[in-house]
Amino acid sequence: MSVTAAPTTQRKSEETRRRILDAALEVFSERGFEAATMREVAAKAGMAVGAAYYYFPSKDAIVLAFYEEAQQEMRTALEAALARSRSLDASLRTIIQTKFDYFGKNRPLVGALASHVDPKHPLSPFSANTAHIREQDQQFFERAVEQAKLKLPKNVAPYLPRLLWMYQMGLFLFWIYDESPEQSRTGVLLEKTLKMLVMTLKLAALPIFRPFQKLAGELLEAVYGG
Keywords, A to Z (predicted)? Predict the structure, then answer.
């Protein structure tokens, strides 16, 4: 194979993979993830089903590729946002709103996938298959906490990024089923809960709440296994 042939082959392979992924997202949004088939995805992409399976061995593999691509594409925007923000509420607002904006065009698909919450399901955001995506996502919350320089109880601080990630997931679930115009109710929920969250974290550091700090630390250790 010539020197110029290799890049050309790679480019064509990437283009084919892109075509399958785009076709799959369209089919999943129209038919629903469970009802859609790889044959329908291949037909939408204009290729044989065997060719589609060559690039993606299953529908699950397509969705995981979608998640990974989303994370890569949002990384630059999230890093730039964190570079501009110093307060925790500003950082969290930007992180979460960036994701709402990004996934907005695929909201039906995200809604269809929201039922996969069992950690044993490969597409669950809590599964072993998605651990690398989850851990990378939590790093943005870690940076937000570090930049805010909050004074937190030592037995609670290590768990805060994971708790903030869970807070984000709760907002996403509400957003998926929010039928208000442009999901305006989700916007209100985000603003109000952010204020409550930041206020709670500031109060939690006060000595008067030391008994609650101890209980919170014990609870978090029990939930996350130390």
Answer: DNA-binding, Transcription, Transcription regulation
DSSP H stretches of helix in 32-130: 38-45, 49-55, 59-84, 88-103, 107-113
Residue 111 has phi, psi (to 5 degrees) of: -65, -40
Closest CA to 78 of 162, 138, 146: 138
Residues listed for the chain: 226
Query: Which residue type occupies 11?
Result: R
Which residue, among 216, 190, 187, has the nearest Cα to 203 in the 3D structure?
A: 216
Give me the amino acid identity at 61. Answer: A
To which CATH superfamily is domain 1-57 assigned?
A: Homeodomain-like (1.10.10.60)
pLDDT digits (tens, 9 = 90+) for 10-64: 888 899 999 999 999 999 988 888 899 999 999 999 999 999 999 999 999 999 9
Find all residues with CB under 8 Å of 99, minimum gap 6, and list them: 74, 168, 172
Name the 3-class secondary structure at 6: helix
Neighbouring C-beta atoms of residue 226, cutoff 10 Å: 6
Q: Please report, for the chain, the start and end positions of each structural domain, with discontinuous segments joined by +.
A: 1-57, 68-224
Res. 3: pLDDT tops 60: no
Fold of 68-224: Tetracycline Repressor; domain 2 (1.10.357)
Inter-residue contact 29 to 106 (CB < 8 Å): yes
